[in-house]
Amino acid sequence: MIRPTLNISGSSAADLIQPRRDAMDALLDAIEALKQVTPNGRDYICERDRFIDDRTTHFDRLAALRVLREELLEEALHIGNQERALA
Description:
- This protein has 2 helices and no strands.
- It is mostly helical.
- Helix 1 (13-35) runs antiparallel to helix 2 (48-86).
- The longest helix has 39 residues, at 48-86.
- The protein is rod-shaped.
- The two termini are 24 Å apart.
- The model has no long low-confidence stretch (mean pLDDT 97).
């Protein structure tokens, strides 16, 4: 996780948090778009093993995006907690 330290010479908490929020929103959009390409068995006639492999890959991709979104949230919360502690 990336955990910048707030200081008088550095970026403001808002300048550090907002891009993370924007990235989180973009990841939600990507997750929703990716759901539209979930492999369907009807597109894998007589290729059950490939269908299973492709679905596994698809859900791994979704999981990776969700993990990244969660990490960005944790970073933003960490920055926000620093800001409150300094206030």
